[in-house]
């Protein structure tokens, strides 16, 4: 019998997605939240919510399950999803863990033990060595990849191409492994050049039934983090799918697996040879693409298996239909090296339908967005920067990529800088369109994929028109119509954006007839407000922008891109946001976060490039340096202080002044 009440031990888009399946099944959804997350979307979409100190506090969350009367706990992914102790704590609280047995989590959570287990079951593994049995310093088969045994998500992985690099690489990986996972044990594997990362979705019940649901292509990665995933893989043939699927099922059976899991393989893009890499004992971020090509709800199947039900189908009944592609939307700025961003969501546009959503067989394209965002919500530095996932299904791969691109163009998160333009550029890359993928493609193509942060001339003109149209006060003489005896005068707007301070000259009334100076010549201009949009006409061309304001800052969005402009007054410190890279002396925060360390004091003489302040965001430290040599004349921050992106951290008066 299915559960009546389930606690979701997670937050954000996955918690919202799980709650929707629970609602469809008539099951009460219980949310947990930290104090700072009390108003989050996943809390509002649940039937009941309880506060916990942290999403990593296993005892508190197990206690919440007990207090709420939940019969089961769904961990989602991340946080405690692959924590065997948490699975045992749930059982002790009388709640079923919607995941595999704790013993399976233990077996697959240790990469060294996992490789030995699946190898004994006949699954191919990458040749390598592991501590404590092997002396990794003596490894001579290069290139090689060093990995933390207890790790995941690409943390601590180091590529080594020669024996000379090995000692420093081992030391670096060991430090990261100890800091991130509390375990410095390492393994080393032969590195496969131009590999494809292909994973198999498996399902197993407690009665001995086990199937696979085909593969997902996850080769589009940046720094070992997946960016775009698809199902099925454009590389995998039906014969290869059958072999890899059978190997994945054997890997699951080898540890007595129950529930949904993913077996990840490294595949040689030239020969098709595949080797086991690891098993994720949880639902994957990219599970929607499998749902869309199979028509199955994986969360529902997880719940039914956890309740003791058998799988409702066998391997011969699994059918793959069409093609699905998913893009991960992150709060990060590609033009600044993908540093995390943040802010308040002023305006939100998300295309398609919320997940889960299965396609009607043979229909046209379908778009699904799994999201934890809501207008008015704050994206901070406390949690992972992934905001949502945009997924497109179509009868074939070409149509699915096209549908995903249009869906991304219709995505807007005004108030927060995102990676949407980068995702659109990636989906349009010729190699991606051709299906010629490998795990190094994104890094090689970065110069082509990262768009300039500079606002085009038309967008600057549009921003100037919007500022010009805003009421400047109650006095009718303050209306910026440029009226004077003889002819209308020009009004100059100084607008600060991410790439500098720009002057936009406007005259006239934008709602009636105005002019904008572009390339030193007047261009007829008109602006019409249409709800959250503004229609801007420059000459004979009209473009519609989404528009939102936050005090003196104006956000415009169009085709997946977004620009922020702040009215810049003479005397404001610095000529542009992000001025820490310039010689004007203003040091600004490259990301929202918390000041961790202050390394200098007002009055100190500093040198160009000298670290002044360390800002921490999303467990990543970033040293902010002096932009020039001189005297530190202003330091408005202190350790422990939260700061917004582009907040002034310090001012250095250059020596020449």
UniProtKB/TrEMBL annotation:
**What Gene3D superfamilies is this protein classified in?**
2.40.50.100, 3.30.700.40, ATP-grasp fold, B domain
List, alphabetically, the Pfam families matched. Answer: Biotin_carb_C, Biotin_carb_N, Biotin_lipoyl, BT_MCC_alpha, CPSase_L_D2
Q: Which residues form a coiled coil?
A: none
Q: Which UniProt keywords apply?
A: ATP-binding, Biotin, Ligase, Nucleotide-binding
Give all residue intervals belonging to the Lipoyl-binding domain: 567-653
This enzyme's EC code(s)? 6.3.4.14
> Which prosthetic group or cofactor does it need?
biotin
InterPro entries linked to this entry: ATP-grasp, BC-like_N, Biotin_BS, Biotin_carboxylase_complex, Biotin_carboxylation_dom, Biotin_COase_C, Biotin_lipoyl, CPAse_ATP-bd
Residue ranges occupied by any Biotin carboxylation domain in the UniProt entry: 2-447
Membrane-spanning segments: none
Q: Where is the ATP-grasp domain?
A: 115-307
Check the record and name the PANTHER family matching this protein. CARBOXYLASE:PYRUVATE/ACETYL-COA/PROPIONYL-COA CARBOXYLASE, METHYLCROTONOYL-COA CARBOXYLASE SUBUNIT ALPHA, MITOCHONDRIAL-RELATED
Name of the protein described by the UniProt record: biotin carboxylase
């Amino acid at each position: 019998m299915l559960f009546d009440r389930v606690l979701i031990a997670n937050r954000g888009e996955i918690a919202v997605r799980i709650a929707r399946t629970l609602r469809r099944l008539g099951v009460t959804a219980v949310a947990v939240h930290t104090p700072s997350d009390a108003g989050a979307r996943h809390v509002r979409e649940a039937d009941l919510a309880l506060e916990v100190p942290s999403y990593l506090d296993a005892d508190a969350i197990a206690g919440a399950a007990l207090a709420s009367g939940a019969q089961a706990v769904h961990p989602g992914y991340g946080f405690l999803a692959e924590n065997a102790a948490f699975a045992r704590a749930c059982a002790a609280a009388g709640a079923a863990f919607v995941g595999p047995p704790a013993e399976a989590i233990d077996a697959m959570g240790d990469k060294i033990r996992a490789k030995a287990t699946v190898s004994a079951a006949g699954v191919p593994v990458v040749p390598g060595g592991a501590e404590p049995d092997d002396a990794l310093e003596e490894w001579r088969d290069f290139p090689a990849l060093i990995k933390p045994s207890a790790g995941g998500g690409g943390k601590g992985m180091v590529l080594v191409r020669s024996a000379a690099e090995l000692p420093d690489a081992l030391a670096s990986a060991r430090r990261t492994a100890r800091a991130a996972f509390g375990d410095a044990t390492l393994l080393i594997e032969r590195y496969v050049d131009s590999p494809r990362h292909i994973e198999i979705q498996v399902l197993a019940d407690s009665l001995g039934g086990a199937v696979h649901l085909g593969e997902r292509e996850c080769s589009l990665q940046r720094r070992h983090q997946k960016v775009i995933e698809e199902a099925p893989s454009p590389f995998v043939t039906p014969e290869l799918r059958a072999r890899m699927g059978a190997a994945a099922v054997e890997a699951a059976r080898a540890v007595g697996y129950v529930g949904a899991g993913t077996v990840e393989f490294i595949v040689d893009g030239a020969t098709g040879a595949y080797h086991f890499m690891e098993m994720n004992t949880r639902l994957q971020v990219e599970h929607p693409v499998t749902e869309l090509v199979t028509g199955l709800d994986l969360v529902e199947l997880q719940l039914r298996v956890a309740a003791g039900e058998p799988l409702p189908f066998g391997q011969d009944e699994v059918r793959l239909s069409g093609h699905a592609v998913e893009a991960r939307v992150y709060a990060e700025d590609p033009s600044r090296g993908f540093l995390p961003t943040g802010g308040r969501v002023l305006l939100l546009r998300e295309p398609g339908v919320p997940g889960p959503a299965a396609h009607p067989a043979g229909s046209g394209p379908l778009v699904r967005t799994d999201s934890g965002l809501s207008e008015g919500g704050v994206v901070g530095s406390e949690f992972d920067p992934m905001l949502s996932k945009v997924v497109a299904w179509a009868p074939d791969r070409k149509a699915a990529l096209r549908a995903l691109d249009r869906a991304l163009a219709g995505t807007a998160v005004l108030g927060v800088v995102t990676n949407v333009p980068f995702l659109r550029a990636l989906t349009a890359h010729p190699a991606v369109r051709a299906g010629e993928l490998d795990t190094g493609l994104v890094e090689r193509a970065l110069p082509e994929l990262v768009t300039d942060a500079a606002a085009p001339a038309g967008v600057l003109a549009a921003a100037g028109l919007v500022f010009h149209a805003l009421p400047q006060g109650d006095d009718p003489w303050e209306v910026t119509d440029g009226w004077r005896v003889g002819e209308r005068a020009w009004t100059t707007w100084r607008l600060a954006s991410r790439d500098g301070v720009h002057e936009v000259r406007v005259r006239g009334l934008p709602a009636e007839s105005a002019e904008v100076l572009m390339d030193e010549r007047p261009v007829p201009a008109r602006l019409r407000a249409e709800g959250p949009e503004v229609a801007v006409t420059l000459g004979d061309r009209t473009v519609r922008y989404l528009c939102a304001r936050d005090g003196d800052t104006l956000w415009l969005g169009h085709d997946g891109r977004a620009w922020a402009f702040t009215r810049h007054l003479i005397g404001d410190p610095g000529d542009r946001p992000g001025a820490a890279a310039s010689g004007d002396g203003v040091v600004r925060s490259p990301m929202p976060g918390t000041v961790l360390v202050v390394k200098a004091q007002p009055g100190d003489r500093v040198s160009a490039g000298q670290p002044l302040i360390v800002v921490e965001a999303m467990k990543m430290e970033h040293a902010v340096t002096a932009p020039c040599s001189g005297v530190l004349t202003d330091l408005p921050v202190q350790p422990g202080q939260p700061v917004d992106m582009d907040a002034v951290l310090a001012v250095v008066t250059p020596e020449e002044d």
